[in-house]
Specification:
This protein is mainly alpha-helical and about 140 residues long. The chain is built from seven helices and no strands.
């Protein structure tokens, strides 16, 4: 018998109803064997309990950490020194110009050539180089 013939034979047979007492017994056994807390018939738990069920202590710890971070952030921003600096007036333009002039003068003094007085103590510009000795020269002849 081919599988297709068998399926056709099954489709032609009338279906019998399962007895109601069998259904109730099977459902009772399935509920007893199910892991977790027993549930009352007809009462469904809320969606957030179903979502948090796998590890409620981990979720509670994460929520506590986020609450602590939020509180610390709020407390640190209440008396922040940034607010004090933001309210202070900017320095006057004359003070900024004077600081820039001092900086410019310092930079130019660093890059200026050496003054004449300092040249006295400087080493000579063209030191005497030793000349090659005649004994050290090698002569090559090609024929």
């Amino acid at each position: 018998m081919k599988p297709d013939d068998f399926e056709q034979q099954l489709q032609r047979q009338p279906r019998r109803q399962i007895p109601a007492e069998w259904r109730a017994g099977v459902l009772r056994a399935a509920r007893a064997a199910a892991p977790g807390t027993p549930r009352r018939a007809g009462v469904t738990s809320t969606w957030w309990r179903e979502w948090l069920w796998p590890s409620p202590w981990a979720w509670a710890g994460a929520a506590a950490v986020w609450a602590l971070i939020f509180v610390l952030n709020f407390e640190s921003s209440a008396g922040a020194p940034d607010a004090v600096f933001a309210r202070s007036t900017p320095p006057p333009a004359a003070a900024i110009e004077m600081a820039l002039a001092q900086r410019r003068q310092l930079l130019t003094s660093l890059f200026d050539p050496v003054p004449a007085e300092a040249a006295i103590f400087a080493p000579p510009r063209n030191p005497v180089r030793p000349q090659p000795r005649s004994e050290g020269r090698a002569e090559w002849f090609c024929a």
